[in-house]
Design a protein that fits this description.
It contains nine helices and seven strands. By secondary structure, it is of the alpha/beta class. The chain has two domains: about 50 residues, RecR Domain 1 (Helicase, Ruva Protein, domain 3), CATH 1.10.8; about 140 residues, Dna Topoisomerase Vi A Subunit, Chain: A, domain 2, CATH 3.40.1360.10.
């Protein structure tokens, strides 16, 4: 792809590094930005800078937040004894959109996947164990996607939690096997949260 402008080429190169964006799409986006008012492009640039410099991980649940403690963890209206374990922030957003869950979350930051070089030490599992030991947690809900790697992660954490005597459950499998949680419709996901079952029951049925 030949460019008449080095600046345009650099912009296309950077944009094309985003997930799902090829060189042609990156070029189309760059040309679109050039056609917009300067203020709009600068506003986008400023938003990205603020995103990179301002967003932090919640010190309690590891969700993305603008402050040290996210709004969910800071809310006195949430049931802090009920902890929903999810893979990342997209799953938090998906469950929140159902309006069916009033507990808090624990974001693992991924799932155990030896093929991708991700082990238990790369996730926030120890933080979850510490939370159960130090706080009054009545139930841990496993809400990971219905994949083999997610099931492995669920079982690994379940074994670590078993000696601690906390109740564990998993969302009902109204979610298609192999599907990511974020792509599940809100009604199905909401019902899965409400119809959760003891985790041990899910092991015996699988």
């Amino acid at each position: 792809m030949d460019f008449s402008s080095k600046l345009l080429e650099n912009a296309v190169q950077e944009i094309s590094q985003l997930p799902g964006i090829g060189k042609r799409t990156a070029l189309r986006l760059a040309l679109h930005l050039l056609k917009q008012p300067t203020e709009q492009t600068l506003s986008l640039s400023q938003a990205l800078i603020e995103l990179r410099e301002g967003v932090v991980f919640c010190s309690k649940c590891h969700n993305l937040s603008d402050t040290l403690l996210c709004e969910i963890c800071a809310s006195p209206k949430r049931d802090h004894r009920l902890v929903c374990v999810v893979e990342d922030i997209r799953d938090v957003m998906a469950i929140e959109n159902t309006g069916q869950f009033n507990g808090v979350y624990h974001v693992l930051g991924g799932i155990i996947s030896p093929m991708d070089g991700i082990g238990p030490q790369d996730l926030t599992i120890q933080s979850l164990l510490d939370k159960v030991k130090q706080e009054e947690i009545s139930e841990i809900i496993f809400a990971l996607s219905a994949t083999m790697e997610a099931d492995t992660t669920n079982f690994y954490i379940f074994k670590l939690l078993s000696p601690l005597g906390v109740q564990t459950s998993t969302i009902a499998r109204g979610i298609p096997i192999g599907d990511d949680l974020e792509f599940t419709d809100e009604v199905t996901l909401g019902r899965s949260i409400l119809a959760r079952i003891p985790f041990e029951s899910s092991i015996s049925k699988s």
